[in-house]
Amino acid sequence: MTSYDTLLVLARLILPVELLDCFDIVEIENDAEMLTIHLDEQNLPPLSPTVHSLESKGFLPAVYIRDFPIRDRKVTLCVRRRKWLNKETGSIICNTFELTAQGTRHSKEFASFLKGLLGEIPDYGPLS
User: Fold this and answer.
1) 32's torsion region: left (phi>0), alpha (psi -120 to 50) or beta?
2) 77: closest CA among 123, 45, 109, 102?
3) Is there a domain that residue 106 lies in?
4) Which domain holds residue 79?
5) Does a structural domain hold residue 122?
6) Residue in 59, 60, 55, 61 with CA at minimum distance from that of residue 85
7) Closest to 128 (Cα-Cα) out of 78, 65, 63, 61
8) Is residue 9 situated within a structural domain?
9) Residue 121: CB atoms within 10 Å
10) How many domains does the chain have?
């Protein structure tokens, strides 16, 4: 098993399930307080029966999502979604992902855990 395969096995255990189906891990930053996992959307254009000519145009600005802490470190997922140019209309289109709980910057699973534990999602402190 290569080191990348080992990383994927570990990542599948700790990251939200839908992330690794559509995103690649491109970097991991680790310091005493924070673990930041950088993820880029794979180059898989949105499927549409009406759109036939798409050209990749890079990424949208990164979105930062809070996830479960690991070993006393806050975990932040830095997610970059791709954008494509529809050559027929000149419009930009993107895939849609529901990675955060509504109205938060927390992963759906982490927000559900916090709400169950605390009755709310804190906006300050070690779990924010």
Assistant:
1) alpha
2) 109
3) no
4) 3-97
5) no
6) 55
7) 65
8) yes
9) 19
10) 1
Q: Which two tokens mark 127?
A: 């779990």
Q: What is the CA radius of gyration of the chain?
A: 17
Sheet holding 34-41, edge to edge: 23-30, 34-41, 73-80, 63-70
- DSSP, collapsed to helix, strand or coil, labels residue 99 as coil
Q: What's the pTM value of the predicted model, to 2 decimals?
A: 0.77
pLDDT tens, position by position, 42-92: 998 887 666 678 888 999 999 998 888 888 888 889 999 999 998 888 889
**pLDDT tens profile 87-113:** 888 889 888 877 766 766 666 676 677
Instruction: List C-alpha distances in Å: 99 to 4, 31, 55, 72, 90.
Output: 24, 24, 24, 23, 27
Q: Are strands 73-80 and 34-41 parallel, antiparallel or unpaired?
A: parallel
79/64 Cα distance (integer angstroms): 6
Residues with Cβ < 8 Å from 17, sequence gap 6 or more?
none
- Spatial distance between the Cα atoms of 103 and 100, rounded to a whole number of angstroms: 8
